[in-house]
User: Fold this.
Amino acid sequence: MKLRSSLCVLTTLLALATPVWAQPQANPLREPHAEREGYIPNPAGTAVEPDQPVRPQLPTLEPRSPQPPAAPQPVAPQPPPPPFQLTPQEEAQVDRALNLWEQRNKDIKTFDCHFKRWIYDVVFGPPSEAKFIEIGVVKYAAPDRGLFRVEKEEKDKKETPIPDGRAEHWIADGKSIWEYKPGQKKLIEHKLPPELQGKAIVETPLPFLFNAEAQKLKQRYWIRIATPPNVQDQVWLEAYPRFQKDAANFHHSLFIITTQGMVPFALRVVQPNGKDFTTYQFYDIVVNDPLRLFQGDPFRAYTPLGWQKIVDEPPPPAQARRPPAARR
Assistant:
């Protein structure tokens, strides 16, 4: 779950097209919006063989062998229901915002930023108080390399190293996703199957910032503008998954863009239970850094001294079943 969650953030951080320097502020998305809950979403006949002798009709005269129960048919997962309906005017506003956002993404080659993250446990903790406040970094290089690392936590307005048990550090190099586990001193290489190599970042649950394309976003999510009336100079885009595979990872998300320069400001991801949520605020953003070549390769994974490297191979592709050969 951590892997998909972190990749969600990698995916959500790629749409930046110009540098912006902003100082971290108080959590801009402290309280989640109220949302409507989704809905959750024949006797077999007996075949009669032709040209058979007449059988007795009374069960006491001739017992019949019981018929085996029919195998249950697999039920396809139902897609989530539409959470809202848009008027033609609202639809045009969404299209205009997404098209502007797509245009800002086309020239991105490299991207770096810091983030501040608030994690809320509404079910088991105070709903208005973050359980954890953390600070980290995200890096990206087109088309499919990324890095996500949580570096520090904030307690009593002081920054301290992140505990090993909550450490998150992932590197995607296009062919594998490398997971660092400091508490276990293990580096796990999750090799990607061939069909995901080169596009694993785009295929993660929230591709709003990595190669964002307006049409693909609308095909994958229900999106509406949810900017509060008293908020200026920002656009709030609220997105709900259209497909069950995405709904299994998050209930909905809220992405905030500044209207000045169309740069990202914050992101909130609500968990599948519709209550717990995580908020990110982005700052120290650098796009297409000309000095990146002199800073080494941040997407090359190294095994720290004394650590164990583990390779997680992808499952082999399913073999096509062939009909049995006819007996002679």
